[in-house]
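Show me any protein, keeping tokens residue-aligned.
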Amino acid sequence: MSKRKHMGTTKTTMGTVGKIFILHGWTYTHKPWNFLVQALREAGFKAELLPIPGLTAETDHTWTMDDYVAWLDKHVAKEKKVILIGHSNGGRIALALAARYPEKIQQLILIDSAGLAEKRLSIKIKRSLFSTAAHIGKKITKSENMRRLLYTLARAQDYRQASPHMRETMKNLLAVDLTPELHNITAPTLILWGANDTVTPVADAHILHDSITGSTLSIIPGAKHSPHITHPEIIKQKILTTLKYL
């Protein structure tokens, strides 16, 4: 399903397209993105996958949303035109930069992006458990298997695997709601979303679409939170198509 709002589609030459930066989600490997980087380069684009501090790049301190925005801003500073592709937590960082420095962004592409306040009670409970799961787990049992089960029930697998610094970083990021800043985004924005995403619900995709002027929303049937892994060809083709019309 595809839905388009008042976005101009004036075709330009490849030379006018800025450098593409890809921001992965909360993961400790960048391998699933290699196919897209290769496809973009083969199509003639300059593309770079950014290692994110605390995930695919080492860090020894706790990060805030402002820290990540400053980090990304430093990477794009030398470029006249920038295209950001962000998945999940990477989408959160891309959204924040695009909202706070809209003049720097030529195109924004979001894939099942995080960054919005979650209204569902189940997710509120989950986020609360991020802060308490480790403490409770140690209190109720000394069994690693039982603690692992507790984390799984809380759906806090990412939290369990994170270092102490990144656990605090996760709390910092989850506390940020970018909804009030979305109206600042002026770049053409493509929103790609798995129809069956249970991590960042499709409702979030519609909020982004309604809040970002000129955005295009495309829901991918059968996909969940990581369509770049389960539906790579669809993601590739939708991104390559939108890059032809900047």
Q: What stands out?
A: The chain has ten helices and seven strands. The mean pLDDT is 84.
